[in-house]
Amino acid sequence: MDWDLDSYFPAFDGPDYRGFKADLEAALAAVRARIEAHEEFEPAAFAGWEAILLGYEDVARRIGHLSSYLECLCAADALNEDYRREYAALAVQVAELKKLEVSLVDVLGRASHAQFEAFLKRDALADAGFVVRRWREKARKVMPPAEEALAADLEVDGLKAWSRLYDTISGALEFTLRHADGREERVSVSRRRALMASPDRAVRSAAFSGGNEAWQSVETTCAAALNAMAGARLTLSGRRGERHFLEPALYEHRMGMASLDALMEALAGRAGVAQAMVRLKARRLGQPAVAWYDLEAPTPGVVETDGTPLTWEQGVARVDAAFARAYPALGDFFRASVARRWFDHSLRRGKRPGAFCTGSEITHETRVFMSWEGSMNDVVTLAHEVGHAWHAYVLRGARPLATGYPSTLAESASTFGEMLLIDGLLEDPGVSDAVKLALLDSQARQAIGFLLDVPARFEFERSFYEERAHGEVAVPRLKELMVAAQRKFFGDALAPGAEDPLFWASKLHFYIAEVPFYNFPYAVGFLLSRALFARFKAEGAAFLPVYGAFLARSGSATCETLAKEVLGVDLEKPAFWASAIDSMIPSGERLRALLG
How many domains does the chain divide into? Predict the structure, then answer.
């Protein structure tokens, strides 16, 4: 591994690690005992319930620390049985934490309005009000406490077990890459996405077809996992009295249905903005339309490097220069993170595919996981993940109940980081025209991803859940739904028969147990960040404190509230989303002009 994890624990399963686990179990038991001793919620017992809530936060902080550490180990070495076993065992503590929350939700939901408001006025809860009020709101849509506790226990060997199975399969999966000269090479699926970003169309095609052969070999298992996870969620949603299966996702992502409907209306209505960029790529390829494996590749005529992939150090230098020029505090943070070895980036067998940022509320440190191939996509991914890390840094020291920001706002921060990188390098006179062209092309690919691919994922998942409510959905039907969703948003810019019918199997986001419908937050974050960045470009450095405040409040506000109070926009109006989509038009026109 490239990263240094010693600040988590000096050694895996060493004395410090085992002692931490023992202390965690003791802390869980102590909070459970307090709850059992404080059944009534009345002013005389408020001090006890305050202690319970603070104990809950302490346990949440500890579990988050351990979870982050084990996630790092499992991702970096997905074949290690000891890491996987420990990560699976942690699910028991997570279930216990959820049961503590169930008790708090139940008690707060049954309290009278006067009692609830009086409790929230206690000094120790001053900055916890937002989440505690949401718990009271959640109490209207829960099962009886005993059933919620049982659901939390069953999740260990249900939802999360299926998710862990998927991680195990994807981490071990390899495919045969058949080169044009007849050579064959066994390649981990963690490298597939980078290979599909190759400027060589033959390499992309080989990675696509070889990768899908591998995914087809496990498609039945993936379909079983997908059906089981959706079935469990639908069952729980019905028992909780939720009117629509999207309600849990909207609650988790802190966004209303009206805002989501407005977003999807705008994305469908303005799909032509990104489709124009896809058609530009098709023309440069000499094709009437693109194939799925062309989407993340550079447009022909765009040269990302001088023929040699960028080294990790060169990529770091590019991100550093852009951040330091536009946002000095972020640049300082990034340099310190690199110096402290908070990144795992090398290519190796058994490494999980994808990229993520994780961190600890105990050490206030982050770690970034990715696979570095040396493309411009990798540089942008690095900036994206550092945007997440900066978000966590801004919230350092806040209480756990004020740091749990939703994916919608998390993706705003990461995409803002991408835009700082791209804009900074575009404005740098020391950056060559060839690199600037590559950056504009990267922006176009970003728009294609967020404005076409992400909504297609959402369309697939929504259609899948609608059918799953009536029974399991078979592999052939899953492929049909995936193709139909891709066709809806890409239109004739995607060649007939050139879709990816197995994308539902190869995309990790569909198998994340903790967060349902992990897709649409990316589009939300992208378009919110466009609005934030427009303000930054108009106001310059004077806007950075406002942006910092946006991040600092992300754990204690809904998307609609932050958008209205910071940006003065209404997310329930399609016009906002449409204007943010249209802000990509100048970049597309500039790319077209430079390509000639």
Answer: 1
pLDDT at 97: 94
Distance CA 55, CA 28 (A): 8
From the DSSP assignment, how many helices (H) and strands (E) are in the chain? Answer: 26, 5
Q: How far is CA 460 from the centre of its chain?
A: 18
Provide CB contacts within 8 A for 506, sequence distance 6+.
Answer: 189, 192, 211, 212, 215, 500
Q: Please report whether residue 542 resides in a domain.
A: no
What percent of the chain is predicted at pLDDT more than 90?
81
Q: What is the average pLDDT value for the chain, to the nearest integer?
A: 93
* CA 568/CA 106 separation, integer angstroms: 36
Residue 424 lies in a domain: no
According to DSSP, the residues that pair with 290 across neighbouring strands are 494
| Rounded-to-integer distance, Cα 563 and Cα 505, Å | 34
* 532 vs 191: CA distance, rounded Å: 33
118: amino acid identity, one letter: A
* Residue 523 maps to a domain: no
Burial of residue 299 (number of CB atoms within 10 Å: 0-12, 13-18, 19+): buried
Confidence grade of residue 267 (pLDDT, cut at 50, 70, 90): very high
Q: Which of 248, 220, 379 is nearest to 313 (CA)?
A: 379
What's the predicted TM-score (pTM) here? Answer: 0.86
CATH number of domain containing 116? 1.20.140.70
Three-state DSSP state, 201: helix
Instruction: Tell me phi and psi for residue 357, to 5 degrees.
Output: -125, 135
The lowest-confidence range among 6-10, 157-161, 474-478 is 157-161
* CA distance linking residue 535 with residue 554, whole number of Å: 18
Residue 35 C-alpha from the chain's centroid: 34
Determine whether 243 is exposed, middle or buried from the number of CB atoms within 10 Å of its CB (0-12, 13-18, 19+).
exposed
Between CA 85 and CA 79 the distance in angstroms is: 11
Mean pLDDT computed over 556-575: 94
Residue 297 has pLDDT above 80, yes or no: yes
User: Closest Cα partner for 345 from 360, 357, 363, 335?
Assistant: 357
Residues 6+ apart with CB under 8 A from 132: 53, 108, 120, 125, 401
Residue 421 resides in a domain:
no
Lateral strand order in the sheet of 365-369: 343-344, 365-369, 356-360
Task: Evaluate if residue 232 carries a pLDDT over 90.
Answer: yes
Residue burial 559-583, b: 16+ Cβ < 10 Å; e: rest: bbebbeebbebebbebebbbbbbeb
pLDDT digit string, tens, across residues 405-439 = 999 999 899 999 999 998 888 888 888 888 888 88
- The domain in which residue 40 lies consists of 15-157
In contact, 504 and 510? CB cutoff 8 Å: yes
Mean pLDDT of 85-113: 92
| 351, two tokens | 């490494």
Predicted pLDDT of residue 301: 84
Count Cα atoms within 13 angstroms, Cβ side, for 93.
Answer: 25
